[in-house]
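Q: Could you fold this chain for me?
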Amino acid sequence: MEQRRNRRFTLHLPMSITRSGAQRVAVAGRTQNISSAGVLFMAEREPDLGGAIEYVITLNHDGIQPVSLRCIGKVLRAERVLNGSDSAAFRIAATLERYEFIREQLVFA
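A: Sure. Below is the predicted structure, expressed as structure tokens.
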């Protein structure tokens, strides 16, 4: 039986990869599960294995004041999977080494 140090939470949240290695990117994705040590998510672009990654998870996308979590980590593994439309996607595991909360500014008209 597999033993994990950190409890995982199944959360399907929108996210975006903003940096992969030294390259700035804009790749949308969706989380599958999150722990205090890392995240498992789906994206359409394969990242560099072992490379640095920066990603932003949107926590309260339907709320009055959206809150995002900007994370920096390292890509542990990437597995190619097929979605329903025969297009390829990647299931990616990445560490969560540093993070900061980003609150969107409210604009009143």
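A (continued): The longest strand covers residues 67-82.
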